[in-house]
Design goal:
This protein is α+β, with helices and mostly antiparallel strands. The chain contains 33 helices and 19 strands.
Length: 840
């Protein structure tokens, strides 16, 4: 036979037919990567500084650098945060390990910091772009190539949290969660499709019928690997185990009603989660018990439980078939076994039972109190106690959100008609993700994938209605060169053009526009916080900890053994990672919501010491008592420095009393001429946060301003106007340093004598590093013998070696005045730090 006339082998034909789609997905992936690289200039700053976005990405770079410094040992307990307790790291190991291995490979075993930073910045963008691939395949197996391509386009531009968490510099595990959870769904779907197509039965496994078993086995194993990768990216991965189990229960029931075997499903589920249990086992920390938040026995137990679940469901179905039992008893049997299983769990392991019972509320429930103030943990559909769709629209666009709901309804109709397993899987997955964003808007980065697939599914159905496949085939057969295009156009119908325009205008253009608008970069952390943290690192005493070391966790019930030189830095929890990663100092509170203090259940609980109780304290004495109580050692304070910013003092202040469950009276309605406006009240101005940030610590005895950054235009000036009106005062109504650092000191004791029961004043002018001045003053009354005493926090003689190198200090001596008498007093730094007496 002439070689030119030989038939093309089947696999070559498949490659040729799939090549256009492969190229299309590749192009879409590169476009997706381009979108995510747009914030380049806001990440790689002109001064050479690499600015990672927000707090958790900074912390991931911290754990990555610790991993590379001590490779292959990874940090699990970190004493450099949540002082004086330390924090266990709940981040999954895989995200850091992937970056570390990449750095070690490209750096020939010794990567420099510039290379590590570059890999860290690009990693989320690359993973976000790779998500295009599984989304394409899920769309393809749901509605054909056209659906897959459209789904890939939509996820490439998907705005909101999926985009923001996969932008250049947002080095966090969330994008890895999205990628691996989607890959898990994709391979789980492929395993189910192939197993059902081949009519797989358990007898095929026993008889080693590889023709039937091989392909489903491979897909099931890969699904298990992907679920394990997802688990090792985020310990809360049981969310997708729930998706698989809910889907499985419904699929078993439907198969039973249709008198079909579900062995294909049982085989897939058993293999998938058996692989997962084996792979996650080496990462378990036995001392964590059955914790949901750390890698513990819980993660192995749930995977094994899933294996048992699939096995039991398959066994029951077989028994029903063998005994010819009524099909409607099958759901009752499942319900009964489920209840018995829960009761048995409650008896054998109350901790696991508690986790199972509380998990739905943890994921799907709307947070209240302090947790409701966590941006990513608040509900997608509730803001300030009111229902809203605005957050959904900003994450998915208006059309994308509503079309996704339509897609679920279409799939639901298909279920009633006899759904394909892949359709039911996508439906259950999407419904549970919708419930997830109802509870916590952070899960928008999951639901964005569902929105893309569901919207593409609806778009694909529209193209089917206008017979797009026929037009596609006509194109393949008639267009061999560009000159054939004109002849092809006569086959194009008006409704086909309108369908494409509708998809472009309603689905693609909104996400494209939103992606361009939202991919401009972030100002978090802003330059003032970077400057303030670098100042902490350079001008405050070394706490005596090896910043690059990995420390062993203390024995259960014991505190970490800190050196005597250790100290904490008190700030709101949002900024804890900045203080540690940029400032190399130990925050008392951090974004793990550790060190906040306050109450969780009821106002009747004891108000635990922490950041919330410190900043809302109504007097210096109350605040100091909180600061001292943070450390269990009565001879040590919980913190030496306090850091505040303009947001803490104004826009996010109410987040602090929310954690104490005591929110009344900080703001009150005032008539402003045409309406009532809520403005800060006396209770607000009595708070420690206001005393420090708004009033610069004026009059405080043991807290001094040691550094401030430049000012931004904030609401501070408005707050000062209100203060002046309430107090009849005249403090300058201007914005001051956006970030301010205060030091907690013993304070020098300035003593002297005057006439008995006479008013005595002490004051000085403070000059900050920004060239700003403000007055510091106190008043007291001498006793019956004429003695008086002031505790003052500022040194007039400047800093000393080994202590705070402050740039904010009195411009001259203190002036003590009473009657017609004035005295100048100079106070040295030793007296301030040791609480020594200075006589007038």
């Amino acid at each position: 036979m002439d070689p030119e006339n030989r038939p093309v082998p089947m696999f070559k034909s498949k490659i040729k037919s799939s090549l256009p789609y492969t190229l299309a997905v590749a192009i879409i992936g590169f476009i997706s990567l381009w979108i995510r690289m747009r914030p380049y200039d806001s990440v790689f700053l002109s001064n050479g500084f690499v600015k990672f976005t927000s707090n958790d990405p900074l912390y991931h770079m911290r754990t990555l650098n610790l991993l590379l410094e001590n490779y292959p040992n990874r940090v699990f307990f970190n004493p450099m945060t949540n002082y004086p307790n330390g924090s266990y790291i709940h981040f999954g190991p895989l995200f850091d390990q992937m970056m570390a291995i990449t750095a070690l490979a490209l750096g020939m075993g010794s990567p420099g910091q510039d290379l590590v930073n570059t890999i860290g910045t690009y990693f989320p963008a690359v993973l976000g772009a790779l998500t295009v691939i599984p989304v394409y395949y899920i769309g393809k197996y749901l509605g054909g190539h056209k659906t897959g391509i459209l789904a890939a386009i939509l996820i490439a531009f998907a705005p909101g949290q999926f985009l923001s968490r996969s932008l250049l510099g947002f080095t966090d595990h969330h994008v890895a969660e999205s990628l691996f959870s989607t890959l898990f769904i994709m391979f789980f779907m492929l395993a189910i499709i192939t197993a059902k197509k081949k009519n797989l039965h358990f007898e095929d496994v026993l008889n080693k019928n590889l023709t039937v078993v091989k392909e489903p086995l491979i897909y099931s194993v890969i699904a298990g690997v992907m679920y394990s990768a997802y688990q090792l990216s985020w310990p809360g991965a049981s969310l997708f185990l729930l998706v698989a189990l809910v889907y499985a229960v419904i699929q078993y029931i439907l198969d039973n009603f249709h008198h079909e075997s579900s062995d294909y499903l049982g085989f897939t589920g058993i293999i998938t989660f058996l692989v997962s249990a084996i792979l996650v086992l080496p990462f378990v920390h036995p001392d964590m018990g059955f914790s949901l938040y750390y890698y513990s026995w819980f993660h192995v137990a749930t995977a094994i439980g899933a294996v048992a679940g699939f096995g039991v469901l398959s066994f029951i179905q077989r028994e029903f078939k063998n005994r010819n039992l009524k099909t409607y008893y099958y759901p009752l049997a499942i319900l009964g076994i489920g209840v018995l299983g829960l009761l048995a769990t409650r008896v054998m392991s109350p901790s696991i039972y508690s986790l199972i019972i509380n998990a739905p509320h943890t994921v799907f429930g709307v947070q209240t109190g302090g947790p409701a103030t966590i941006g990513e943990a608040s509900s997608m559909f509730y803001y300030d106690g009111k229902f809203t769709l605005l957050r959904a629209f900003s994450n998915f666009t208006v059309s994308g959100f509503f079309v996704s709901i339509l897609g679920m309804f279409v799939l639901l109709v298909s279920v009633f008609r006899k759904a394909k397993p892949e359709e039911l899987l996508v439906l259950i997955w999407s419904i549970l993700m919708l419930f997830a964003i109802y509870g916590q808007n952070r899960f928008a980065y999951y639901y964005s994938i569902n929105v893309s697939i569901l919207s593409a599914y609806v778009g694909g159905l529209l193209l089917d209605k206008v017979k797009w496949s026929q037009l596609s085939e006509k194109f393949k057969t008639t267009v061999k060169s560009p000159s054939d295009l004109q002849g092809f156009l006569k086959f194009v119908k008006v409704e086909q053009v309108l369908a494409v325009l509708a998809i472009a205008v309603i689905l693609i253009y909104p996400v494209y526009g939103a992606a361009l608008e939202q991919s401009t970069g972030s100002n978090d952390p802003d330059s003032t916080w970077i400057e303030a943290c670098l100042w902490l690192q350079s001008y405050t005493p070394d706490p005596g900890m090896d910043y690059n070391a990995i420390y062993e966790a203390p024995e259960d019930g014991e505190l970490f053994d800190y050196p005597d030189t250790a100290y904490g830095v008190m700030s709101w929890w949002d900024y804890g990672h900045y203080i540690e990663t940029l400032g190399h100092r130990m925050p008392n509170a951090n974004p793990f919501q550790a060190g906040i203090g306050g109450r969780r259940g009821s106002i009747n609980e004891e108000n635990q010491p922490g950041a919330a109780t410190f900043f809302t304290a109504q007097s210096e004495e109350e605040a100091t008592a909180v600061l001292e109580a943070v450390h269990p050692d009565p001879d040590k304070a919980g913190a030496r420095y306090i850091v505040s910013d303009g947001k803490m003092a104004t826009t996010i202040f109410m987040a602090m009393p929310e954690w104490t469950l005591d929110t009344a009276g900080y703001y009150q309605p005032y008539w402003t001429g045409s309406s009532y406006t809520y403005l800060p009240s006396m209770r607000y101005f009595d708070s420690m946060e206001s005393r420090l940030h708004i009033l610069d610590g004026n009059g405080l005895k043991q807290y001094r301003l040691v550094h401030e950054t430049w000012a931004y235009q904030t609401q501070e000036s408005v707050y000062k106007q209100v203060y002046n009106l309430l107090h009849g005062s005249s403090i300058p109504e201007v914005d001051t340093g956006y970030v301010k650092i205060f030091e907690y000191v013993k304070g020098a004791k300035v003593t002297g004598t005057a006439s008995p029961n006479e008013t005595v004043n002490i004051k000085t002018t403070i000059l900050t590093g920004q060239g700003r001045t403000f007055e510091y003053s106190q008043s007291t009354t001498s006793d019956s013998e004429g003695r008086y005493e002031f505790t003052v926090p500022y040194s007039t003689e400047g800093p000393i070696s080994g202590e705070t190198q402050f740039d904010t200090a009195p411009a001259g001596p203190y002036v003590v005045s009473y009657g017609n008498t004035t005295r100048e007093v100079r106070v040295n730094e030793e007296a301030v730090l040791k609480g020594e007496e200075v006589k007038v």
